[in-house]
Write a structure and sequence with these properties.
Helices cover about 50% and strands about 15% of the residues. It is an alpha/beta fold and about 475 residues long. The strands form two sheets. Strands 5-4-2-1-8-3-9-10-11 form a nine-stranded mixed sheet, with helices on both faces. α15 runs parallel beside α17.
Length: about 475
């Protein structure tokens, strides 16, 4: 590759609602390798009251992937390091964007010929509502967190995370990138598109769909906000593409098939149960549930603390590299937090986990639940944030909120934990001693056992001598 300087971010105006957007310019070939060229554009997000319709960019929802697997792209003419999963996403997006007709789209992405023509309107929108700039050139802009946010600038990260709910709720389309395609994903996508034709009950299709819904993407914490707020979703897995509505319809028909077929075999019932418990199926159901509840919330707003506590309990097992994101990734789902009479929770990556825990405990003051439910929330939060319950800040917060836990099972004290740990250690030691004692006794029994005399040899020897 040619020598280029390393990319340096130009600062954003953090006093304004400014973000960066990415334009995938071209894919060139140099020294036998693909080089992806991108440009950044600064964009000021208008207030909703000034522009309630969707904005002229898309947003990418993806898994960051292995931090050791990285590649280089050209960003504004300089080298920029991205993780390998994002590099594959950029390449696939550019290949799709260059297709402008149904025939070209069929070449760029794998689609069955039986797809209704009305769906191509949505699919080809991956080139999408082209934006004309001052020079009358067309370009398509995408918001990608790893590129559009200076990850080394904590103040900028705090600012941009505060805008993410508007980015994903007001963009034109959210593009879900599940990762490169595999033989299984091709079968799964054909299964999803083939619903209209019927006859899709094949074990290979079942296994492929289950594999697609168990991909690591579905376990990422940030996708909860990104998918729940999305106005429209298109899903990409390598060159395979489908609409979110088609995936939802696939799962709905499988449920109907399960309820209508009482004669299902044991293996089929087991597969349906695995499908129901898969992370992808859970996300699909939760998005539909969240969308329906938004209408109710607009008529009967609940206290923001109740909603946040509920979300933290529901999604505590989702994964993220920074434990603070266990909370920050959900704040965008609760717009009432910005108008709450209590001090608002805002993303602050300089904050310690223990201080964030103390702020969350304030929400318990208005959390309408039983003492045992409050205690369960505290325990779940401590485990999710990986916080030591004996940290002074945590103990202070729990002592301050002690009246809220009146009647609940007490939190373990340091002495209780020490005693329990010692008990386990003693049990382990006793087991080891017992095993050692049994081993010694076994070895002693073998050693004390009298050696067999070579009777036959002795007799032969004696007979020969006589």
């Amino acid at each position: 590759m040619s020598d280029f300087a390393q990319f340096q971010y130009s600062p954003l105006d953090l006093k304004e609602r400014c973000i960066r957007l990415v334009e995938i310019v071209a894919i060139t070939h140099e020294d036998g390798e693909d080089v992806i060229e991108c440009k950044t554009h600064k964009y000021k997000v208008p207030m909703f009251i000034d522009r309630p319709r969707s904005l002229d960019f898309d947003a990418l929802s993806y898994q960051w992937g292995d931090e050791k697997a990285v590649k280089q792209i050209l960003l504004d003419g300089d080298w920029f390091t991205v993780r390998e999963n994002l590099w594959h996403a950029l390449k696939a997006l550019k290949e799709v964007q260059t297709s402008g007709t149904q025939e070209a789209c069929t070449v760029a992405v794998r689609l069955p010929t039986s797809v209704p023509s009305r769906l191509y309107t949505n699919i080809i929108s991956l080139q999408w509502k082209q934006v004309r700039d001052d020079r009358s050139k067309f370009k398509r802009l995408i918001w990608i967190d790893a590129i559009c946010i200076d990850q080394e600038n904590v103040a900028e990260r705090n600012h941009q995370v505060g805008l993410m709910n508007e980015i994903f709720s007001r963009c034109s389309t959210v593009i879900v990138w599940l990762g490169p395609s595999t033989s299984n994903s091709i079968v799964a996508v054909n299964h999803i598109w083939g619903l209209g034709a019927g006859g899709f009950e094949h074990q290979n299709d079942h296994d492929a769909l289950l594999d697609l819904l168990n991909r690591p993407y579905w376990k990422r914490m940030w996708i909860i906000q990104e998918i729940f707020l999305a106005p429209d979703i298109i899903v990409l897995s390598g060159q395979d593409i489908f609409l979110w509505e088609e995936l939802r319809e696939t799962l709905r028909r499988h449920r109907l098939a399960k309820t209508s077929q009482d004669h299902c075999g044991c293996l089929e019932r087991q597969w349906h149960e695995h499908l129901r418990q898969s992370p992808g199926c859970r996300i699909v159901d939760a998005r539909e549930h969240y969308t329906e509840n938004m209408r109710v919330r607009s008529r009967t707003p609940l206290f923001a603390g109740d909603q946040l506590v509920s979300l933290l309990m529901d999604w505590a097992d989702q994964e993220c590299s920074d434990k603070l994101d266990k909370v920050y990734a959900l704040l965008g789902l609760i717009p009432q937090l910005s108008s709450s009479p209590r001090p608002c929770l805002r993303a602050d990556y300089k904050k310690k986990k223990e201080d964030l825990f103390r702020e969350l405990m304030v929400l318990l003051l208005d959390f309408g639940a039983t003492p045992n439910e409050r205690r369960a929330f505290c325990a779940r939060l401590l485990k999710s944030l990986e916080i030591c319950p004996f940290h002074p800040t945590v103990r202070e917060a729990l002592a301050w909120l002690a009246p809220l836990f009146a009647g609940a099972a007490p939190f373990p004290s340091r002495d209780d934990v020490a005693v329990e740990h010692a008990r386990k250690c003693f049990e382990c030691r006793d087991q080891m001693r017992l095993m050692e004692r049994n081993g010694q006794q076994h070895r002693a029994a073998i050693t004390a056992r009298p050696a067999r005399r070579p009777v036959m040899m002795y007799r032969l020897t004696a007979g020969g001598a006589g």
